[in-house]
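Standup notes
- HV: blocked on the assembly model, inputs below
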Amino acid sequence: MFVIIKDLLKRDKKFLFGFTVISILVFLAILSAFSPYDPRSWNVVPKDKSPSFQHLLGTNSMGQDIFWNTTHALKNSFILGLTTACISTIIGTIVGLIAGYRGGILDRILMSINDSFIVLPSLPILVFLSFSLREKMTIFVMGAILSIFSWPWGGKQVRAQVLSLREREFTYTSIFSGMNMWKVVFKEHLPFVIPWVIANFINTILWALGMEITLSVLGLTSLETPTIGTTIHWAMQYQAIFRGIWWWMLTPIILSVIFFVALYMLSVSISEFLDPRTRLQRIKMGG
Amino acid sequence: MKVLKTYIIPRLIQYLLVIFIGITITFIIPRLTPIDPVQSAINRLTSYGGAYMEPEAVASMQNTLKELYGLEGGVVEQYFAFWKHLFTFDFGPSLSMFPTLVTEIIANSLPWTFFLLFFSLIISWIIGNILGGLAGYFKEKKWSNVLAVVAMSIYPIPYYVMALILVILFVYIFPIFPMMGGYSVGIQPSFTWSFFLDVLRHSILPAISLILVGIGWWFLSMRSMTSNIVAEDFVTYAEFAGLPKNKLLYSYVMRNGVLPQITALALQIGGIFNGAIITEVAFSYPGVGSLLQKSITNGDFNLMMGISVLSIIAIATASLIIDLIYPLFDPRIRYR
């Protein structure tokens, strides 16, 4: 695993870019533990001050320091992304492994449910769900809700991989040597699909963070928890652009742009690494 | 006949399953909300009238409203009644714009959404596929890589953020485009040339935002598709056989690459209801998306239900049709 990361860091600019940016953002998120202000309380600093040494990114109309609030927002975004990605990856991977391994009727039933969820229009339904649960909408609840709609993608991909693994020699060897289904699936097949699972994991984080912004802008999340989405929501509510408080609006916009591009670069670079054709090209080019 | 049994019937069952799961979820969720539509309607009436109402009058009105809104009886009864109404496309009256029918309200908003989304989708599909196809074929060229990097930095940006950037740039900093809305304030919607131009002017910015993101996505998928096809044996063979480059590009590479894109296009057309919410909220465009947002803030069950049920059926139907006709486009796929 670490060999692969080292290799990618050296060879692939996309991976290097993504990895560096995400590392910096993780560092900022950790910094939130040292924040001198409570992110939920208002009027702790003077309002609407432009960036200065005392307040690196300025302050907003609610009397909060934008830099420290951003560190909290990043922490919460990471928590949300990781919660969603963990839950949906676990469900998706298990469903994919079992459906691919067992085949037959079980496979058909699981895949029908899977496809039904893929085709469901997730946004309107998510909007309802968040609307009804608005009072109880913590970061974890939201992660759980988002995973309802994101597990099927991973499931489909893992199943496709397992379908080909199933026909290979080592599968038969392990079945004939008396391993039961769970052992074959988790000990023999899982290691092979791990790279796909990781690429999918990153994509799920991307999707979850985008959804969070969408729902926050509609005012459907718990708005006192700082996240990238709620920062945008409040800046819009207080007409930050109109009143020339550009640092308030610009911070979440720039942050989300580099965050998303970095995550996407990571996922593209991993999928390219997985594709045997691009790997062949890399060898041809002496890379 | 074998085709019917092994391909068409399972697809149809899948189609019904999707609609069943989707509609059941949309039925259950709004009923978990703390908002009581009957109570809020009564509150509205009493506050308008400003008069004191006898408790008996309130009770009888509650019953009438419950019946009108289809909230009579237990949840199970309501569920069956809901299905019955659904088959007749009867979603009842809107709760917030009582007594206008939900279907009527949706029908008024649909043209706006359709106009905006359909054209942006088609434009971005065409541009994205042509650029993507060329970029995938000429993968080693510099411009191809530049385009790829641009697309990769536009596509993952969350859609709302993208819309916001455009609004800040072209409404506040360089005021080229009008402030939001579907048409200028004070103009009466009519079938005249000037009204049409006004609508067009207002739709340019939301359309640009949709097209930009759309091109990024179509470009990236088409590029990876064609760059894989270029490496396939039949292309290499045709190349050695001395086929002209143009013919190779258009009838071998692009033609095969565009097939999966047709499926995706159909899904997106079905999903027109879906993507519109953010665009319309960001630009205050008067379509189905804004309607959904309004129905959420007002706790308008019937309207919410109507919109989401329609979008579920539209997407499911689009994907069913595509599944059934796809083998006609792509000879490599057989009805299995």
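- HV (later): unblocked. Residues 57-241+256-269 of chain A form a domain with the MetI-like fold fold (CATH 1.10.3720.10). The radius of gyration of chain A is 22 Å.
- Next: hand off to the docking folks.
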